[in-house]
Amino acid sequence: MSEIRLDRIHNQYVIIAPERLRRPDQVKHYSFKVVSATCPFCEGNEDLTPPEVFAIRDNEANSPYWKTRVVPNLYKAVQIELEDVSKRDGMFESIAGVGAHEILIDSPHHDRNLVDLDKEALQNWFRSVIIRIDDLSHDKRLVYLSVFKNYGKNAGATQDHPHTQILAIPIMPQNELVFLQRNLKYYQRHGRGILQDIVYNEKIAKERVLQESGDFIAFCPYASAFPFEVMVAPTKRIASLNKCTRKEVVDLSALLKSVFEMLRGQLGDFDYNLSFNLPPLNANFENDEYMDAMEKNYTFSIRITPRIYALAGFEISTGMSINSVEPEECAKLLRGD
């Protein structure tokens, strides 16, 4: 039986329609497997990338024997070197494409997805993201930070070596501004942020919870937009990933690895998008009114979206999603119930 559910984080409706699971030719698998000798992200090919801006290593920069490596994106969407200026021509307004677009190479190994990394390697991945958040926040021109992974062609990946993209820009996306406004109003009414209450209610409901590790929880969201979608979030208020202690990074790494093991157990080697939901890097004229309460009402999260079904006309034309697998059923399968 179909049901229309409200996703309170994005303030959008999602149609849960199990009947559509029976449609033919819906599952798409486009994961990468071929290793290239000239892969620019593989160890030993450091000269094929721009000079690194950060790496976890014990030797000189831009040489082999590293654990993680961050380099500027060769095909960058924005450029840190540009001057932050705006211009207007009648009703047409634009600003220079200022920003940072970086590639975090998850590991030296071409064929290791996040689930294949050992505990230390996964913790290094998290710590690399944290260090880049801290560093980029020092550039006061940069306001919004997007950290995401595309794995597999169906998720939009164009490079097969597993990597993470870090993109910082001088403006706030409109959907993020809308969320900050709704989150502040919710906090002013309830004394808690939206995600805080979602996590609290998921813990009470239990049926969509996959696992907890320390102060973190993984669950299939009530209004999941995609089958087997998983959210990982703190069970206490932690505004941003870079506010995590070393122990919290250890717990978060263990939980994320466990989640990917559950997903692989059900889906095999699947294509996916992973994204961090993070507060603004810095204040500007767009978000200034929300910044004072950010530490009190914002909670960061990670969202894993398997891309096992293709989007169709309804999703594209309306912005709404049709999910053919109930999140409660996904949670049962992932837990092995």
Verbal overview:
The chain is of the alpha+beta class. It has one domain (about 5-335): HIT-like (HIT family, subunit A), CATH 3.30.428.10. Helix content is about 25%, strand content about 25%. It has helices at about 120-135, 175-190, 195-205, 245-265, 290, 295, 315-320, 325-335; strands at about 5, 10-15, 55, 65-70, 85-90, 90-95, 100-105, 145-150, 165-170, 210-215, 215-220, 230-235, 270-275, 300-305, 320-325. The strands form three sheets. The protein has a ten-stranded antiparallel β-sheet with strand order 3-4-7-9-8-13-14-12-11-10, sandwiched between helices. α1 crosses α4. The protein is globular, with a radius of gyration of 20 Å.
Distance between the termini: 22 Å
E-strand count: 15
Q: Rg from C-alpha positions?
A: 20 Å
> How many structural domains are formed by the residues?
1
Percentage beta strand: 15-25%
Low-confidence stretches: 22-34
List the helices and strands and how they pair.
Elements: E1 3-7, E2 12-16, E3 54-57, E4 66-72, E5 86-89, E6 92-95, E7 100-105, H1 119-136, E8 144-151, E9 163-169, H2 174-190, H3 194-205, E10 209-213, E11 216-219, E12 230-234, H4 246-267, E13 272-277, H5 288-291, H6 294-297, E14 301-306, H7 313-318, E15 321-323, H8 327-335
Parallel strand pairs: 2-15
Antiparallel strand pairs: 1-2, 3-4, 4-7, 5-6, 7-9, 8-9, 8-13, 10-11, 11-12, 12-14, 13-14
Helix pairs in contact: 1-4
